[in-house]
Amino acid sequence: MKHRIVVLGAGYAGAIAAGRLAKRLHRDDVTITLVNADPDFVERVRMHQLATGQELRKRPLHEVYAGTGVQVVIDRVTAVDAERKQVALADGQTIAYDTLVYALGSTGADQGVPGVAEHAHSLAGKQAALRLRARLAELSAGAPVVVVGGGLTGIEAATEIAEARPDLAVSIAARGGVGSWLSEKAQQHLKKVIDRLGITVHDHADITRVTATAVVAGATEIPAALTVWTAGFAVHPIAAATTLTVSDTGRIVVDATMRSVSHPDVYAVGDAALADGPGGVPLRMACATGSPMAWRAGDAIAARLTGRPVPDEQIGYATQCISLGRRDGILQKVTFDDQPTSTVLTGRLGARVKEFICAGAAWSVGHPTLMMPSRRRRVVTTEAEADQLVAS
Fold it and tell me: I need a labelling partner for 256 at 20 to 30 A (CA). Which of 79, 100, 146, 212 fits?
């Protein structure tokens, strides 16, 4: 009987993991099933572009994995039974697995702030970005737009909107300082671009309420015909409803090989996983960590099934990339433990390198059969022995 591998979610982490496994394992020995609610691979790092009216290239998953041996199921996951090793789908069917790769990612989090759910838009996924796109198209010249959140998503959203719609009054509100984690050189460039685009910055603004016409920070009301909420993400609640060990935020706790600490037949990657990074600090939710986590999980599963050494080197950081509209950007070199260095690329060069990185990530997902490694190895155990090997 073939070893059944099921991958839940086809964002960057899930899609890369599925392709990695297809390249590592001989299709006579395993079945690989990829389950995703959307029929296309969605470049989440480009949601600010989609929201401002740009058209993104479609990558249908059935076409991406044609000829790879990966079976694509388009449906929404409703539950995981980690004891019976089954996944329940919205259409009523269940899928059994021997090894599960959980990569359901994250969605926007309102942080408990009243009014966010009712009045704010987000960039947490394709449908959210399309709703924001429709709302932006309705706004007349001079309308105030407030982006809440001074992290990567907030900066990219504010600059993209300001560049695409210079007729709007765009501002960004952050609890701390906008881009305050960047190096001095990068911060100076960011400020220059923000000033050039006419974006108003509200630093140290702790938003306590969102209404239909404003965001409220203490005694201050900032007018907002449109509020874009980027202040945090939360994982889907499915894992927390299982017997898997999860963190207080619902992320599956994994070891250095991305394997669940409580269920050795379950691996988690991307935003859905809580994995230690350098210095024991959990890896942050990001494409920059999701892809290496997917590589690690795919390689670890293949190694355990084929009786080879299991990689467990620590995952760290290399760069942070920020789009500042279509013609500007920042590429911040960071240390292995995610601290900014003095090496920074800015302006058009920064934008070109950021685009190259984003395009490269999407290309690697869209061409799983062309990526290394290329040798498919045979599973060296029977199913019963494989279960014992995976648990070892």
Answer: 79
Q: DSSP class of residue 180?
A: T
Give the DSSP H or E segment for 102.
Answer: strand 99-102
Segments of the chain scoring below 50 in pLDDT: 383, 386, 390
Respond yes or no on whether the N-terminal peptide bond of residue 373 is cis (omega within 30° of 0).
yes
The helix (run of H) or strand (run of E) holding residue 34 is strand 30-36
The verdict on 212 and 265 lying in the same domain is no
Residue 163: give the domain boundaries.
Answer: 116-229
**Domain boundary residue among 202, 229, 256?**
229
**One-letter amino acid for residue 79 of the chain:** A
Distance in angstroms (rounded) separating the CA atoms of residues 341 and 332: 7
Indicate if 201 and 127 belong to the same structural domain: yes
Q: How many CB atoms lie within 10 A of CB 341?
A: 12
How many residues belong to the chain? 392
Residue 385 is predicted with a pLDDT of: 55
Tell me the one-letter amino acid at 33. Answer: T
- Which 3 state secondary structure label does DSSP give 28? coil
Place of tokens 């498919």: 376
